[in-house]
Amino acid sequence: MADAKRHWLRTDDQDSTKASFPELFFDLVFVFALIQLSETLAADFTFGIAAEALLFILALWWVWIHTTWVTNLLNAEIIPVRLMLFAMMFLGIVLAIALPRAFTDLGLAFALAYSAMQLGRSLFTLYAFHGTDRESFRTFLRITLWIAVSCVLWVAGGLVDPALRIYLWMAALAIEYAGPLMRYRLPGLGAAPQETLDIKGEHLAERCALFVIIALGETILTTGKIASAHLEREMTPVVLVSAFLSTVLMWWIYFHEGQEQAADKAEDSEAPQRTAQHLYVYGHLPIVAGIILTAVGEDFALSHPDEHGSLGHALALLGGPMLFLGGTAWMKRIASHSLPPSHVAGVVALAGGLLLTPLLPNFGIQMLAIVVLLLVAAWEYVALKRGRSLA
Which of 34, 147, 151, 195 suits a disulfide with 218, CB 3.0-4.6 Å? Predict the structure, then answer.
């Protein structure tokens, strides 16, 4: 049985570093999930909804990145792994459908779908490593037990009053996010040894870059849908162009040099597992969250371009790019050991822009965010070009 399962593991040949078609197929579910999330936030973005938004972003990212981590270790081209991904896709659809009403009448459905995805995938991987890789098996045994504890809180949250639900679900996410930092330490088993998993850095880098494209693509889809519903307004064409420019600038800031540097760092690191955790498991969370919030902000700019003084709208319009720039700065800091001053200045400028919220309409706040992103992209481009000329 052990020899029969060895082909379940991803090999070290060149093709193994590329994203497979089953993985790309799996990602389609998250296009739907991100659209559901953006529309839910845009419908009523208050401070209370912002807390729920944080929970949803954390949950969606965690289930995706850990599935990607598993497909980094297993061969997604074989039938058992494909079937696991298809099951995850169906559960992901249920999760996305329940998401807009997770804090009303579909809380249990959301919790059960999320728990089934997390625990089911982990049990599958545990079985895949049984008899083939003892250290990886013991690591996933720890992971499975940690997830089982968090799943109890997820399901309990789905059963209690919605007012208490967010506290149980935040506690569940705190356990899951603390797991890698604690190396899934357990009584009797201790902590997982460092660098026990055979991580393929190039594959993980490509997968996370593709998820960033999915998030940016969701921004374009949402923007186009909202614009088509407000074609009668004079400001719509201008706001649409501005929203598209914002998406292009975020693409440029992430992919021009930074993503390639991060991929090289992940592939060449002497501690690939720890580096991958810093760069991708935790490091990409603010990047993705920032893109999602930016999409919500662009919705506000299109649907309420002349509205003044909404701090909630400003938090999306400026807070989204702030998170994005902070995340890309962290990624580039790890990859190159240098914190880009352009990104730091951009975060400071966007934070200062919050003070102008009472004075500017939503469209004006959006333009401020775009100007900052444009200056950051231009500053970094010039700095990199000068660096090459001096090399």
Answer: 34
